[in-house]
Structure formats: C-alpha cells, structure tokens
Write a sequence for this structure.
C-alpha cells in the first residue's frame, strides 16, 4: 500500500485522453507489436473498473483492480517485463480541474490531510508501456465529520481590580455544529495542567469573570465541543487584574545646584511606581504649584531659574491603578552668580609712551552678593596679565613699551568668584623712532654684478609700524649709494663690479623718524667674465699672411685662461673660430690675395666668456691672376678653331692683355692637330697657364651647288641635271639627289634620297601624274683613307615641278564649254597654268602672267554662269 505524505504536490492534468500516436515509445520496448495487439491492450486498459474508496474524516484509501495482461502480450524476458501503471487524479469541485495525486504501480493508495465533511471526486487511468487507457468515471465520496479545529486564544476585552472580560472567535466545526465552549483558568502564570478550573460552559463567545483579586494574574484557555467531540485547547492567555494606587513617595532630593538650574532625584519603588509628577512653586509669585515634569525617569533638571532664589517642590507617584498623594514640600535654592562686567571702561588722561590710566563704573548686576574688589588685566600680544586688584574703579598702567597696542579689561570680584570681563579697550602708547636693525646678511653667494641682501626688522619698532627700509652701498673709495628703499626685508643690489669690496648697511623708518644704521656687512663681489678685449690690430705681411694682435683686458677677478679669435671669410655669413690660446697675437696664413677678412677676439675665464671685441677688417695684398680653368673648344672646322674659357680670379688686380673669354683661330690646315694654353696677366704678374688643350681640324666639305634643272617632265618621269663641283685635294666627288612630294603649297617637305653617284644628271621614274615634287642636290667628298668617312656639303635650293595629268577619254555626251560646270573650268585652267610654270629663272615673267590669267579666269568662271542664269 502506498501512503501519501502530509504535504503532497498537485499538478494540473489535461482532462482529455492522450492520443496513442503522441505517446513517446519506451527505450526498452520493441516495435514488433502489431496494430491488433495494441488495440487489444487499449481495450484491456480501458476496462479498468472504477476504484473503491474507504473514507475517514481526514483520509481516504483508494483500491484499484488491475486488469490481466494476456501472456501473448508479455515479453519473453520477465525480468524486464513492464507492469501496469496507474495515475490517480482528484478534485474537490464538481467542475474544477483535476490534480495528479499519484502515478505508479500501486493498487492501494492512501490520501491524507483531507478536509472533514468535504466532497471529493477521484478518477484513474491505466498505463501499459506507451499505451494509456481512458480515465474512469469519477468516484464521488465525502469525508466524515470530526471535532472542531483548535480555537484561537481568547482576547482581553476589559480588566479591573475585580473582574476580567474575555471574548473569542468560533473555529471550524468540521461538519458538526459546535454545541458549546469550555473556558478554563487558574490563578497564576505557571501551574500544572491539573490546576485548571472551568469558569464557563456555553455557546456564547464572550464571558466576564468576577470576584477576582486585585493585582493578580490569571491564565485562560478555550475548547470547542460539537457532536463528534471536543477540540484541542487553545493557546494560553495571561491577564492580570488591576491593583491599588501607590503610597506617598519621599520628597525629591537636590543632587546639583547651579545659578539657573536645580537637579532633583527620587526613588522608584519596583512593582509600585510607574511614572512621577514633579511640581514646583516660586516664592512671591502667587502662581502656586505648577507641573515641571511628568514621566518615568527618577531625575529631572529644572532649568531657566533665577540665581540665588528659593523654590518649593513636591512629588507624586502613579501607576495603572491610580495616583498617590503628594509628598511633603521641600525648598531648594539656586546658587549665587558672579557679577556682570563693569561698565564704561575708558582711558583717563593723556597716553604717553610708557603709561596710561584706566577708569570704569561698577557692574549693573552683582550676582546676589556684594562686590569686594576689581581686577584689571593687560594684553600686549602674549596673553592677559593682571596689573591691578583693588576696590577703587581706577588704576594706572606703567612701565609700558612705546608704540605698543595693549588690550585692557576689568572684572568685579566677589565671594562667588571673578565676574564677567568687560569688553576690552585697545590703547596704543606713543611711538618713538625704531631701533637699530640687525646686521644684514647675504642670501646665497655674491655674483659678479649683483647680490641678494636680506635683513630682519628691528626688535624695537618704536611703537609704530615700519613703513620702509633703506639700504646703502659704500664703495672702496667711500662713496655712498642708496640701493633700496621700500617695505620688503630683502633686495637685489645690482650694478656691482666683479671682484670688488663693498660695505652694506640698512636702517628702518617709521612715522616718527629714521632709526640708526645697522652694523656694516663687508662683501666682495664674485668674479665675472672678463672685459671685452680692445679692437685687434692687423698687420698684412703678404697676399696670403696677416698677423692679428690685441691687448689683454681686465679679468674682473678671475684669471684669463683663453682667448678665442674668430674670423669672417667673404663666402661666410657668420664668424667661425680661427684659434684659441693664451697668446695675444695670431698669424693667419694661406689667405686669399686681395680678400677682405674680419677678425674679433673674446676672453675667457672661470666665470665665462667676455663680450666680443669690436671687429677689425684686413685686406690682403693683390697677386697675379689664378690659373685659367675650364678651357674648351666651342667650334671646330677645317680651317678654324673657336676656344673659350672661364675668367680666373684676378686676385685684386684687373687682368689685361685681352679681356675676352674666347678666341677664334683661322687660316688653319685641315686634319691638323693644334695645341692651346691660356694664362691671365695683371699688374702683379703673369698667372699660371692652363693645361694644354689639343684640337684637330676637320676635313673641308665640298662647296654647295646651285639648284638643279628640271627637264622633260611627263606624267610619270622627269630628268634632273646639275652643275659639277670643284675637285678636292684628296678624294673624289659624288652627288646625292633627294626628292620630296608636295601635296599642298604650304605642306612641309619630306626629302628622301633617290640617287648618289658621280653623274651630274638623273632621270626620275614611277612618279605620280598630276603631282607636285621638289628636288635638291649636294656634293659628297669621298676620302681615300680607309678610316675616313664621306663628307657631304650643303644641299642646293629645292626646285618645284609638276607631272602632267593624263588626257581624258573623249565621250559623245561631253557638254560644251558653255555648259561645263564652274569647278571643271577652274580645274582645267589651273592645270594649264601649272604646266606653264617652269623652275627656270628665265621663265619668271611667264609665271607672273600665268598668275594674272589664273585670277581673271576665276572671275569669269564665277560671273559668266551667274549672268547666264538670269
């Protein structure tokens, strides 16, 4: 049998039967079952009868009858044969959703923690492997009734010294009506259960217990009874009756007294007193007693009281049962206070540099006791010091410092103590001139031209603020110079000379006058850079040597360790170092002649570099020109050579004997080597000659020819002839003929060689009819030497000629001249003119006439057709 625990979980279950095809197959099941076997199993699972239910008040036992599975449906391996599973669902509502309460192979299921007298619906379904049967019809059962539930503990309604009133709520009756309640109690809080006594039995839900003892605690419990039985007893409720008021307390005791408050204390009796009421009464006011404090504390400070005044107090105790009578009245007095501050504290008479007088009036409040004396104090900046104590309202303050500001105050003194101090009065004694300043000192080391001087203000300022300080400098010749005047206590002393001895003094000045000078401070200024050397002197000894000298400057306290000589060349923008050393002169060598050089010098010691001296300029002596360079051949022919060169440096003197930078040498022989060398000369002498240059003249080319002559120009051929050239000394003469076709009158000519030989005429063939050509010819010298090349002369002027057009074939439909188009007439006319043009100079007049006829023909060709068309 399967027993459910007291807290079992419920899950929502869909009331619809699961489809057989949607069930997941078991991992151990086989797919060998046929549809018929599944149908048989399903019918068997659906034939499970409704369960049997055995009902109690809070539990029900469900008995399930399992169907028998045929042996044919069981697996041959009984160890792994699955059993029929059952799923049990229930609900406590007719149409409510079912909840799963159990799923397993048990056939007896126990449902616990049910509600008594409550109806339930249960149903089951059988499951075999992956086949689920339908749910059975719901079985309806109702749990049996039971005794009522445990009631809640009674609640207190009212309590007094002699009765307690309680009420309670009805618990669940669990299917049987509650017939009455049992209320039990016992006297006290912790007694055995057998001590309970029944104080009420009935069906009401409240009860009042009378004739109880005051200040006594009682414990109550409640039980409900129906037709089935009695419920459990409720939790216990403890209630106490009220007691009697507390007795008269002792009067309050004074623990502390001040001028404006009294601290009162009293005793709290345990179990009797819960809170207290303290009242006070001030004498001679007529208000009577008034409440000062109400609460559970056992002490209270009464504030805002008058000093040295008597007050009456009384105390009352209270608890839940009432208030006690008032205690006996006691009188307590506040303490007396010190006197208030004296009034009108002023300076009486004239204030001098050493003393002044004070006067004042008595205080308005004496604190309740007589003033015995007065105390006067002065503060010079280091705290107040008492200077007077006596009964008179006046005192003298002497032995003061001049120009000091003092703060004075006064207070009244009584048996209670020293009273409040008056407001302080500031009094300043008359000042005098300030005292002597201490000896000044240096801050850091003295430098060559400046030092940092510091000093402290005088200990005695004379009673007036120091307005300014003065510092003076005494030179070695006893001349004095003021170097500072101002409020600061340090200054920078400038304008010093390096390595000099000086005396320094300071003095303070206030509104009264000037103090004494301090003791002098002797200072030696630090070493400085040397003075700039004097302008150097230059001695020009030759065109390439200059001697530079200078004088040693003042070293300003440090030995000169080095002189730096710098120079500026003509091709430089800045000075560069030439030499360094301790000598006072330097010989500059390897200089350029007739060149201007600048020199300046600088001295160096341990402190640094001096300024540069003024520069000096020296011009070296001129010398003969430099050697000529860059000699080259500009042009070479058979009988002349052109040589050029760059002008050399004249070294300060103008070059003469020819100032040009080129020379042409004529009347030379061909193929002959010549040697050239160039030198420059001026007043200082001749320059070095250049390196020799070897030049060989070329061979003489043939002379140019006249324009060739054109003869017998046909449609595709033409004969060209020319004059023969003069013979050369060596070699033979040949001729080179070039031809170029000219498409337009302004088109460029592209000559191509068509003939080279020794003849003076040549017939051109394979020409294009009606085409313009240009021809030219030149002589070519053929050298006999094997290594020599041919030398061509200049080409002759070009000659223009035209090949004739072929004659047109006659046709029977050829129009007459009068009907020929204008363009045909112009073309024929132009052809005739071109044929008449000959390159011979003797035919130039004919060319002019042909041009005129060409113009006239154009006009006629345009005008005549126009007139005919009218």
């Amino acid at each position: 049998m399967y027993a459910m625990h007291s807290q079992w979980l419920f899950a929502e279950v869909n009331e619809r039967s699961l489809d057989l095809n949607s069930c997941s197959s078991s991992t151990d099941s086989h797919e060998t079952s046929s549809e018929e076997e599944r149908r048989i199993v399903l019918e068997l699972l659906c034939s499970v009868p409704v369960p049997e239910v055995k009902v109690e008040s809070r539990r029900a036992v469900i008995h399930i009858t399992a169907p028998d599975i045929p042996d044919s449906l069981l697996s041959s391996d009984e160890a792994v044969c699955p059993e029929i599973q059952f799923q049990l669902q229930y609900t406590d509502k007719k149409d409510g959703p079912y909840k799963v309460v159990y799923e397993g192979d048990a056939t007896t299921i126990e449902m616990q923690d049910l509600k008594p007298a409550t109806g339930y619906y249960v149903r089951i379904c059988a499951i075999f492997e992956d086949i689920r049967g339908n749910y059975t019809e719901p079985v309806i059962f109702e749990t049996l009734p039971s005794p009522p539930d445990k009631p809640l503990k009674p609640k207190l309604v009212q309590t007094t010294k002699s009765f307690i009133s309680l009420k309670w709520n009805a618990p669940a009756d669990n299917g049987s009506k509650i017939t009455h309640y049992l209320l039990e109690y016992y006297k006290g809080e912790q007694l055995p259960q057998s001590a309970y006594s029944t104080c009420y039995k009935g069906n009401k839900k409240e009860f009042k217990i009378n004739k109880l003892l005051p200040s006594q605690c009682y414990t109550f419990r409640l039980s409900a009874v129906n037709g089935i039985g009695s419920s459990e007893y409720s939790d216990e409720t403890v209630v106490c009756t009220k007691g009697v008021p507390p007795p008269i307390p002792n009067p309050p005791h004074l623990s502390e007294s001040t001028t404006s408050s009294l601290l009162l204390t009293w005793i709290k009796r345990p179990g009797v007193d819960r809170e207290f009421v303290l009242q006070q009464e001030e004498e001679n006011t007529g208000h009577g007693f008034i409440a000062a404090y109400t609460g559970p504390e056992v002490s209270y400070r009464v504030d805002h009281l008058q000093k040295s005044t008597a007050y009456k107090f009384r105390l009352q105790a209270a608890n839940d049962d009432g208030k006690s009578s008032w205690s006996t009245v006691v009188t307590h007095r506040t303490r007396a206070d010190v006197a208030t501050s004296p009034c009108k504290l002023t300076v009486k008479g004239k204030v001098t540099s050493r003393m002044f007088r004070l006067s004042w009036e008595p205080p308005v409040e004496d604190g309740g006791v007589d003033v015995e004396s007065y105390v006067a104090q002065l503060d010079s900046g280091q705290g107040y010091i008492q200077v007077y104590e006596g009964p008179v309202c006046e005192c003298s303050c002497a032995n003061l410092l001049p120009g000091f500001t003092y703060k004075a105050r006064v207070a009244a003194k009584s048996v209670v103590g020293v009273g409040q101090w008056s407001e302080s009065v500031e009094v300043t004694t008359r000042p005098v001139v300030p005292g002597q300043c201490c000896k000044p000192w240096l801050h850091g080391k003295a430098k060559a031209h400046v030092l940092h001087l510091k000093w402290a203000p005088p200990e005695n300022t004379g009673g007036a603020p120091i307005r300014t300080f003065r510092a003076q400098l005494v030179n070695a010749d006893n001349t004095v110079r003021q170097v500072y005047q101002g409020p600061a206590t340090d200054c920078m002393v400038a304008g010093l000379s390096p390595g000099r001895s000086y005396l320094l003094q300071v003095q303070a000045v206030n509104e009264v006058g000037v103090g004494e000078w301090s003791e002098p401070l002797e200072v030696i200024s630090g070493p400085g850079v040397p003075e700039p050397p004097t302008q150097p002197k230059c001695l020009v000894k030759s065109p390439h040597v200059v001697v530079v000298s200078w004088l040693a400057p003042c070293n300003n306290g440090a030995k000169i360790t080095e002189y730096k000589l710098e120079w500026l060349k003509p091709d430089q923008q800045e000075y560069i170092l030439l030499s360094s050393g301790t000598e006072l002169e330097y010989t500059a060598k390897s200089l350029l002649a007739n060149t201007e050089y600048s020199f300046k010098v600088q001295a160096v010691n341990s402190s640094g570099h001096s300024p540069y001296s003024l520069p000096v300029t020296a011009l070296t002596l001129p010398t003969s020109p430099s050697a000529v360079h860059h000699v080259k051949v500009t042009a070479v022919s058979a009988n002349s050579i052109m040589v050029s060169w760059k002008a050399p440096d004249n070294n300060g003197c103008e070059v003469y004997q020819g100032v040009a930078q080129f020379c042409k040498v004529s009347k030379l022989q061909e193929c002959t080597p010549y040697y050239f060398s160039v030198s420059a000369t001026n007043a200082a002498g001749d320059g070095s000659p250049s390196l020799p240059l070897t030049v060989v003249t070329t061979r003489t080319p043939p002379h140019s020819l006249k324009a060739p002559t054109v003869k017998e120009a046909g449609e595709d051929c033409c004969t060209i002839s020319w004059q023969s050239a003069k013979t050369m000394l060596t070699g033979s003469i040949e001729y080179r003929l070039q031809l170029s076709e000219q498409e337009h009158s302004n088109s460029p000519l592209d000559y191509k060689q068509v003939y080279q030989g020794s003849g003076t005429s040549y017939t051109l063939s394979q020409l294009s009819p009606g085409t313009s050509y240009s021809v030219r010819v030149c002589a070519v010298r053929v050298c006999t030497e094997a290594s020599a090349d041919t030398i061509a002369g200049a080409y002759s002027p070009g000659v223009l000629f035209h090949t004739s057009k072929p004659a047109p074939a006659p046709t029977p439909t050829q129009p007459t001249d009068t009907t020929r188009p204008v363009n045909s007439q112009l073309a024929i006319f132009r052809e005739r003119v071109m044929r008449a043009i000959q390159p011979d100079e003797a035919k130039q007049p004919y060319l002019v006439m042909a041009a005129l006829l060409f113009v006239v023909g154009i006009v006629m060709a345009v005008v005549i057709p126009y007139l005919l068309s009218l």
